[in-house]
Amino acid sequence: MSLDQISTMLAATNWSIAEKEKTIYEQSAIKKISNALMKSYSHQSLEGLTLVDAIQRLGIEYYFEGEIKAILDQQYLKLHVGAEHSAALNETALRFRLLRQEGYCVSADMFVKFKNENGTFRAELSEDIQGLMSLFEASELRVEAEDILARPMNTVGRFLMSQSGILTGPWVV
């Protein structure tokens, strides 16, 4: 056996070992994320919604279809029994967006509680940047007859752009 053949065999063996280690690592990571999802399922709703959102943004939701469905089913049930009426803007908008984009029948009337007597969103909501960003994303899933989300799409978009000057960090363009 020549030196080239031996080095080729060793390289193939090392590659095979590296691939197996990578697979074991991926399986371990998937199991940890799955456990975190199921833990959030039984505890806090915002944590579960945030995890589902992050997993979808990463594009790995196909690994967690069952867990995501369980969390969204629970959120949908909570919504219809009124258990989440006191949720903050970020949680409400995130719940609306995730449920709506997965095909659940969700009414935009859940945002009425954030409006004042003039029918506009309350001024103190302008301090909740995360909530406004979630509201903006949720407003992109409105249907034509949902006027409650038509205005935020324009207003919140302009407001967030005006506030971009106060944002700092390497991720700000």
Element order: H for helix, E for strand = HHHHHH
Derived from helix and strand composition plus strand pairing, the structural class reads: mainly alpha
Alpha-carbon Rg, integer? 22 Å
The portion of residues assigned to helices is 55-70%
Number of helices: 6
Strand content: under 5%
Number of strands: 0
Report the average pLDDT across residues. Answer: 76
Describe the structure in brief.
By secondary structure, the chain is mainly α.
Could you characterize the architecture of this molecule?
- With 173 residues, the chain is mostly helical.
- The chain has helices at 3-42, 45-58, 65-81, 89-101, 129-139, 147-163.
- The chain is elongated.
- The mean pLDDT is 76.
What are the salient characteristics of this protein?
6 helices; 173 residues; mainly alpha
Chain-wise SSE layout:
Blueprint: H1 3-42, H2 45-58, H3 65-81, H4 89-101, H5 129-139, H6 147-163
Helix pairs in contact: 1-2, 1-3, 2-3, 2-4, 4-5, 5-6
